[in-house]
Amino acid sequence: MNETINWKKRSRVAEVWRQLKKNKVAVVCLFIIIAVFLVAIFAPYIAPYPYDKQDYSATFAPPSEDHLLGTDQLGRDILSRLIYGAYQSLQLSVISTAIASLIGIIIGAIAGYYGGAVDNLIMRFFDIYQSIPMFLLCVTLAAVMGPSLANATLAIGISMIPGPARMMRASILSVREMEYIESARLINASDFHIIRKYIIPNAIAPLIVYVTMSMGMNMLAGAAMSYIGLGAQPPVPEWGAMVSDARNIMRDHGTLAMYPGFCIMIVVLAFNLLGDGLRDALDPRLKS
Questions:
Q1: Which of 62, 119, 127, 205 could link 111 by a cystine bridge, Cβ 3.0 to 4.6 Å?
Q2: H helices within 42-178, ranges in order?
Q3: CA-CA distance, 274 to 155, in Å (whole number)?
């Protein structure tokens, strides 16, 4: 029995991969994201210098053999800071997305499965919740908790909860009346067991796409928070913070802002295009 279930899971994954391979752009984006994750994980071994090493004798140095992308106003190696910045930016993106998805999936599953008054109460709460602009809510929460990368991550995660919750609710509404759910009820399976074992796995496909795209959106939100001083604090080399550090000298040394800005653009675009590819691979009928 278990072998049959495992075989079905493997065949489903293989089918998704087969469909995804047809989208060359999505595959390229997948490899870009994997490469960025590897760079972030092995940053201490890849970066030529510590991210906070200062050399006042080499401020604003042009690209050279010692500093491939030059140095900033404090003589810090830009390439090293970009490499370490990948870790900070991805950490914010992954953790904030995990917070929003975990809480949102649980709340959305409860609302979709039970319906009625419970569903109405939760959805009306989210209507009020989403009436506040997402970035304004992030800024307010981060300002109350204090400026730091951890607090910005938590603020973004809390602000993004309604999205996965609504998506999980919509998915569950489409599967909760299926025959296999009725069969589980007839054998007196508990509500928790039905939601965990049958409903969530069969309603998860749209969430995979949403989570992938949210990674890029949350990274962009984190960069914006750092840019206005509510995210990563000096000398932490988060990409948004690096753009903020360079904003006053952008006219004379534009590359200091261009490099981290380009990194943000590429990674966010890769997440979005990969999300599009996963949407088509998980449900080819949606493909235009």
A1: 119
A2: 43-46, 78-114, 116-130, 134-145, 149-159, 162-175
A3: 25
Report how far apart, in Å, the C-alpha atoms of 279 and of each of 14, 163, 182, 186, 228 are. 15, 16, 28, 34, 34
Rounded to the nearest 5°, which phi and psi values hold at 53? -75, 125
- Could you give the CA distance from residue 264 to residue 241 in angstroms, rounded to a whole number? 11
> What are the residue ranges spanned by the domains of the chain?
31-49+69-286
Residue recorded with tokens 């890849």 = 46
Q: What is the pLDDT along the chain (288 residues), one digit of tens a residue?
A: 444 445 455 566 777 788 888 889 999 999 999 999 999 999 999 999 999 888 888 889 889 888 899 999 989 999 999 999 999 999 999 999 999 999 998 898 888 888 888 889 999 999 888 888 888 899 999 999 989 999 999 999 999 999 899 988 888 887 777 777 777 777 777 777 777 777 777 777 788 888 888 999 999 999 999 999 998 888 888 999 999 988 888 888 888 999 999 999 999 999 999 988 888 887 655 444
Task: Kindly state the tokens that stand for 287.
Answer: 């493909």
Pick the CATH number of 31-49+69-286 from 1.10.645.10, 3.10.560.10, 1.10.3720.10, 3.40.50.150: 1.10.3720.10
CB-count burial class (<10 Å; 0-12, 13-18, 19+) for 147: middle
Least Cα distance to 163 among 225, 97, 220 occurs for 97
Q: What is the pTM of this model?
A: 0.86
User: What are 264's two structure tokens?
Assistant: 């943000």
